[in-house]
Amino acid sequence: MIVRNKHRNEIYSINFNKSLKDFFRASTKKYHNIALITDSNVHKIFHKEIMNKDINILKISPGEKSKSNRVKEKLENKLLELKFNRDSLIIAFGGGVIGDLTGYLASTYLRGVDLVHIPTSLVAIVDSSIGGKTGINNNKGKNLIGTFYNPKEIIVNSDFLKTLPNKEIRQGMAEIIKYGIIKDYNLFKKLEKINDNFLDNNEFEINKILKKCIKIKVEVIQKDFKESDLRSILNFGHTIGHGLEKLYSYKKSHGDCIGTGMAIESLIAKKYLEFSSGDYKRILKILDKYHLRKTIYKKSDIPKILEFIKLDKKNKKSKITFSLPDKIGNIKKRNKKFTVEITDKKIEQTLKEYLNEI
Ligand SMILES: NC(=O)c1ccc[n+]([C@@H]2O[C@H](COP(=O)([O-])OP(=O)(O)OC[C@H]3O[C@@H](n4cnc5c(N)ncnc54)[C@H](O)[C@@H]3O)[C@@H](O)[C@H]2O)c1
Ligand SMILES: [Zn+2]
């Protein structure tokens, strides 16, 4: 699959099931120096697959805490020590944490060196490795510091998923369901039918689903790299979801929060726009099938959730906007935009109604 970025005049490919050995062999011929950045969980499982005498393996601790300036600086110092120059390559081998951090590092090290993503988690395969967003967290919030930076290549192999814990599969399922709701009714129908244990489906089916999701994200980011309008459809479920993540001080996982977020945002679409009750019920059902509606809040939390949503960087001038479907598989433009403003009162009402429903 080819990704074209017309704003930056860049082009790169997403390659499926490419042999790592072949890729390493070709890269060691091409580059002066190569570093592969991974976390200790991933390293423990795949150390044999990534072993190569010409590649420097840099291992960091797993988890969101590693998406920090401190860890980035440590890696930069290591690369400087190893005399990495502009003819070097940096490979991100891991989940979204590794991808975001390594992408940011590659984009700023000597003002930019070549980057390749090899995503190993479901979230990284269908979401974070595509689209060029890189970044780290700081004490004021998540993903506040970063760049838009494209890799030279993304290598996708669903075999890596076999060792991924169930909880992490669930995080990726939330984004996969989101793709179905915002852009692909057939994908949604497929997700209604298949085995709820994603990895128990046959390999062909799994790969087909992954490719569909990747294609949707690529199509969206090709048209709107910097998120001026269309790209906001990828935020379906995320406005409420981010509010819930903040309410729980990020102790609950992203996918679990956007699961509930998608349910509540669908209820907003049903109450105040044209989304049908039949479609709303199907969304609740599919979220339950993949155990994505377990994050819940109390009535007394509602003012806090609203406040957190307003603080979100995506909500300009304290007005809360959403990207909401008109039916499963589509988000239509309203007033020439893919986002629509919903008043605080309506959001509050919906958050209350959702609690009464469950
Ligand atoms: N840049 C973007 O557009 C974008 C989009 C979505 C998410 N993100 C970011 O991605 C991060 C979340 O990504 P994630 O869910 O992959 O988290 P993660 O990188 O923390 O990975 C989840 C866990 O799975 C482990 N793991 C990864 N691959 C494995 C494998 N094959 N087998 C066994 N264990 C494995 C990791 O060590 C980690 O413990 C967040 O920081 C989020 O902000 C970025
Ligand atoms: Zn997300």
At a glance:
With 358 residues, the chain is an alpha/beta fold. The protein is 47% helix and 15% strand.
Task: Explain how this protein is built.
With 358 residues, this protein is of the alpha/beta class. The chain has 13 helices and eleven strands. The chain is 47% helix and 15% strand. It has a seven-stranded mixed beta sheet with strand order 1-2-9-6-5-3-4, with helices on both faces. Strand 7 and strand 8 (141-145) form a beta hairpin. Helix 6 (166-183) crosses helix 8, helix 6 (166-183) runs parallel beside helix 10 (254-272) and helix 9 (238-247) crosses helix 10. The longest helix has 21 residues, at 203-223. The mean pLDDT is 95. Zinc ion binds at residues 175, 238, 254, 258.
Name its key features.
single chain, 358 residues, alpha/beta, Rossmann fold, Dehydroquinate synthase-like, alpha domain, seven-stranded mixed sheet, two-stranded antiparallel ribbon, 13 helices, globular, binds nicotinamide-adenine-dinucleotide, binds zinc ion
